[in-house]
Amino acid sequence: MNKRKICIVTGTRAEYGLLFWLMKEIKKTDELILQIIVTGMHLSKEFGLTFQEIEKDFVIDKKIEILLSSDSSIAISKSMGLAQISFAEAYKELSPDLVLLLGDRFEIFSAATAATVSRIPLAHIHGGETTEGAFDESFRHSITKMSHIHFTANNNYRNRVIQLGEDPKRVFNVGSLGVDSIRKIKLQSKEELEKSMNISLLKYNLLITFHPVTLENNTSKIQIKNLLKALDKLKNTHLIFTKSNADNGGRAINQIIDEYVKKNPIKSSSFDSLGQLRYLSAMKFVDGVIGNSSSGLIEAPSFKIGTINIGDRQKGRIKANSVIDCKPSTESIQIALKKLFSKSFLDNLQNTNNPYSGSKVVEQIIEIIKSKSLDGILKKTFFDIK
Asked: Can you tell me the distance from the alpha carbon of 50 to that of 352, in angstroms, rounded to the nearest whole number?
């Protein structure tokens, strides 16, 4: 029996962290051959050259440079065009049996489009979710329609993928890879974390990740400044910033964070990339997660810590009771911070159930991509809900 070639595409540090254990399992599965295409932020010095972390664990089959020196809408569109050309060439050379994609970023959309034209079956992870404040919303649903096998993180999301016309027999609710990773990884101790990050945790500590809200015009600078004003009033609190991604306006956010940390080196620190181990370990020791990253909604509830979810970037996602929604104004964030540290909220955190939990997520995905027939899978029939 021929081994099935599974091609995984990754463009960001967060995405690789989610995919790591799945990639590791594919690599050691006899019936499968792992192919890796690295692109986007991984290859950028500005974002930490994180492909070097991947190379410690895997052989990268293809590196595809797509990022320009700007994050304007024109630059992003040009990056997408360059990505589609380059992915088409990579697929031609690698000849995968299945392309496995996670999420909703612009480079992943380009990877999906190139695979579709190349007549290569697609498997998609984390479909059916909604993020109404970002153009990732449109990319995600478009990738769903190009894909042939679907792995969702929640049964509600499975139903939404089916609502988009996908065959229920090809839509599998497995849970989140991020939550699955928490069970698999050996987290650092507090001392190990402080040493690896070269910081000293204070009485209170917060993990902060803030990305642009890409369906809003020129709000990034205003919103990050409002957030910093609210955080600056906290006493005896260390602020751990992980920098924004390469979306429109991301560089402006990172510049403002760098300036703040330079002025406040004792109570704040910033990182281009923490990597999965340090990021999840930090969650273990912080008092809360703040910003608009999906990790505050998906992974943080498993640590029984609170999340302040700012603005509309994650609007529409299913949320645990540990998530506090607020507007991107200084006043609204201050009110949310007060609630985050309140006794009633802290007491209730112990009752948190993570809506993204699944059982043996990696193992489920492996079994399906190993055994699911790909014969005739490219021709899809739209599934009508009766």
From this structure: 33
